[in-house]
Amino acid sequence: MHVGNLRTALYAYLLARSQGGTFVLRIEDTDQARHIEGALEVIYATLRQAGLRHDEGPDVGGACGPYVQSQRTAIYRTHALELVRRGAAYHCFCDKVERDDDPAPAGGYDGRCRHLDPAAVAADLAAGRPHVVRQKIDREGVTTFTDLVFGEITVENKVLDDQILLKRDGMPTYNFANVVDDHLMGITHVVRGSEYLSSTPKYNLLYQAFGWPVPLYVHLPLIMGKNPDGTVAKLSKRHGSVSFESLLAEGYLPEAVVNYIALLGWSPKNDRELFTLDELAAAFGVAGLNKAPAVFDFDKLRWMNSEYVKALPPAEFAARARPFGGITSPHLAACWDRLVAPLLHPRVEVLGDIPEMIAFLAALPDYPVEFFHHKKTKCDPARARAILADLGPLCHRHGEWTAPALGAVVQDYAAARGLKLGLPMWALRIAVSGRLVTPGGPPEIMEILGRDESLRRIDHALAMLAAHPTA
RNA sequence: GACCCGUUCGUCUAGUGGCCUAGGACUUCGGCCUUUCACGCCGGCAACACGGGUUCGACUCCCGUACGGGUCGCCA
Fold first, then answer.
1. For chain B, which bases have at least one atom within 7 A of a protein Cβ?
2. Each residue of A71-88: pLDDT tens digit?
3. Which of A2, A232, A291, A432 is the most buried (most CB within 10 A)?
């Protein structure tokens, strides 16, 4: 599910919750050619993971079912024919125009079937001639509707074409099914993306033709993505992971994603940014909705995710992070909760970063002797060599192999030699991790590595330093 | 191309005629802290698209221009 769709669902949910309303899930599957196996399950899973519980829907029932449009075709047919009877729609026998010519052809359907001889229409219908049902829109006058976000919008009817209501295969179009279902299901607020703004006048005409009250419209600003060249366009796959599933797979927390997208196009009107779903529902209001398109910023999502990660209780972080760890050794698996996760917890922004952060634990990476040069601690290969030569045996002799004990060994050593702690720590870090940056310090890493592996790595460093005495 | 909509720091936004020397957050850049990195803390850079009005006074109201976006499907 695209995050844009999720955000629309989220706002609809928040609006319903904040007003004591009902959140209805309706499946709009009227395009048989685009049916995708498993798509419905993705919708259910996304809604569940995002915490958006619907009050009515295909799986939970309700008074207005069925909630799957492909199961309501008889309803749409009846209503389309009612419109024909009222003179607001008509049968059209024109050939289907394929839409694959590149520059979109100017001007739509010309309405040529409006004035077909009724007897001929009846005969063609009886003969089973393929047809569609079109909405009849007068060329004269204007149509005005009010949107809660964009205000009053007026368009000339002549720019509206006779849109199709019922397709050749008997299925309704999205626009028609929506009007019928929204009315029949008692929908009060139509919350959707602003790309639907320009088709809304036709909705009003349909409601008028039926003699139904018009619902309230809440059109949302679009979510945009930034292109490599700096321009922006409707957020799509080319901009990265834009489906809820892929974001979760990369290690973003569902709560963080929901919080982030809530703020894309809506503002609580104050400086607050971190909200739980319930808090969002309490703060939500259409007055906070913006009109201008919003650019999806992965940097900010990343930051927000890190806030959620840090707020997790230690045990829960360990559990959620575990599947992302890429754990291959039984040893790491065994000490994950107690030793590894605590190191990662304050440093991880996105769970998917973990494998790269701890790869050095499973295997010492190749590293250049230059790593022992460190300005701030005044470390260099010669000093590192001397320090490691001292520290190796000292650690080896020490009975207890825990981070606090090892830390004390290094501290005592530094104190005895009048060294600042950072110097031996740096030499040790490079030796046991082979990396400039590690989650946690040398004592913590050494505890995880264990006595044998730690000493093996120190020996390896010593050998390397001996081979490059002047590096 | 036609129609509709939009335009405050790079990004998300606050601001509804004087409270604005335009606030917050992300990013970025400094500094502090520190056993690296990170976290945390402190601080800096950075915006009202432009031009006309209206008004004592405009980021806020009106008009135009520019730019951006959306729609123009027997897709949703």
1. 1-8, 10-16, 23-27, 35-39, 68-76
2. 999 999 999 999 999 999
3. A432
Alpha carbons A277 and A254: distance in angstroms, whole number = 11
Q: What span, in angstroms and rounded, lies between the C-alpha atoms of A389 and A379? A: 15
Task: State the distance between the two ends of chain A, measured CA to CA, in whole angstroms.
Answer: 54
Predicted ipTM beyond 0.90: yes
A107 phi/psi in degrees, rounded to 5: 75, 140
- Residue A234's nearest CA partner among A278, A185, A293, A311 is A293
Question: Over A181-250, what HEC string results?
Answer: HHHHCCCCEEEEEHHHHHHHHHHHHHHHHHCCCCCEEEEECCEEEECCCCCEEECCHHHCCCEHHHHHHC
Round to a whole number and report the distance in Å from the CA of A167 to the C1' of B71: 21
Distance CA(A460)–CA(A60), nearest Å, equals: 63
Q: Is the pTM for the entire model greater than 0.90?
A: yes
Q: Separation of CA A303 and C1' B29 in angstroms?
A: 18
Amino acid, res. A125 = L
